[in-house]
Design brief:
This protein has five helices and 14 strands. The protein is of the alpha/beta class. It has a single domain, classed as Metallo-beta-lactamase, Chain A, CATH 3.60.15. The strands form three sheets. It has a six-stranded mixed β-sheet with strand order 1-2-3-4-5-8. A six-stranded mixed β-sheet has the order 9-10-11-12-13-14, sandwiched between helices. The protein is globular.
Length: 272
């Protein structure tokens, strides 16, 4: 299994000279095995991914953790959409009583093209998306996490390896948690790689409490309790510079290395 980060920034794209090493594109991660690729979220990071997939014969699946703009805004610029011979499996986002498709961005108003003008063949999976992805060869489960408007975390196992991807989650939210800490520990337990929201530091609180993102120390606490092999810090704040992320990575490594856990602050192009 190969995991690649194409967009690691949260909230809004932030391409500035101060964050060139980590990158300014918003959330997009791929999980690959053999000739299959699962794209999780379609922030602006999906645009450079699309250039890499042009002309390939990989089977493309796209699923969402939630539908905030930083997780869907790049989809109309995904080049494989414009390959006539391409088929893309597009899993609708279903959360409680709501359903939303990335195709809704193609309405001729928010984007110049309509759904009917997309050259590629779109296989829209409207129901039982998790079951469909399992049928496609991804041993996958998901659970709701703590994020305003509702979001999912994914656990995926392939060829004896497991990754848990939770890009937006407030481990210690104000009020009642959708995903209590012990439940998160169980969901992440023993994963080889945990990619988790670490957008904030303690100095961001209490102003950002309730915004749906975790502070660094809580992400480290989850990694320790779940006994994961490698924590990848994700969903970086748009105002966080390369130097600030270097410092966060160093603090996390100091916390985790005594427990035998590796740690990396996600950057565009990171491949595990």
């Amino acid at each position: 299994m190969q995991i690649t980060c194409w967009g690691v920034r949260g909230s809004v794209p932030a391409p500035t000279p101060k964050n060139q090493r980590y990158g300014g594109n918003t959330s997009c991660v791929t999980v690959e095995a053999d000739d299959r690729i699962l794209i999780i979220d379609a922030g602006t990071g999906i645009r450079p991914l699309g250039h890499e997939l042009l002309g390939t014969d990989q089977t493309i699946h796209v699923a969402l953790t939630h539908v905030h703009s930083d997780h869907v805004e790049g989809f109309p610029f995904f080049k494989p959409l414009y390959e006539e011979e391409r088929t893309i499996h597009l899993v609708d986002h279903n959360y409680e009583e709501t359903q939303w498709s990335l195709l809704e961005r193609f309405d001729g108003f928010h984007f110049p093209l309509t759904e009917l003008e997309i050259p590629a063949t779109i296989h829209r999976v409207q129901d039982n998306g998790v079951a469909f992805l399992n049928d496609q060869g991804f041993d996958l489960s998901r659970r709701p996490v703590n994020h305003p408007g509702g979001a999912y975390g994914y656990r995926i196992s392939l060829n004896g390896q497991t990754v848990v991807h939770i890009p937006d989650n407030e481990i210690d939210p104000p009020g009642q948690a959708v995903a209590p800490f012990d439940d998160l520990v169980s969901f992440c337990a023993g994963a080889d790689v945990l990619v988790h929201d670490a957008q904030y530091v303690q100095d961001d609180m209490p102003e950002k409490s309730g915004w749906g993102h975790s502070i660094l120390q809580d992400a480290c606490r989850l990694a320790r309790k779940a006994q994961v092999g490698h924590l990848v810090l994700f969903h970086h704040d748009p105002d966080r510079s390369d130097e600030a992320l270097d410092a966060m990575q160093a603090r996390a490594r100091e916390r985790l290395s005594p427990h035998g856990i590796d740690c990396t602050a996600a950057y565009e192009g990171l491949t595990l």
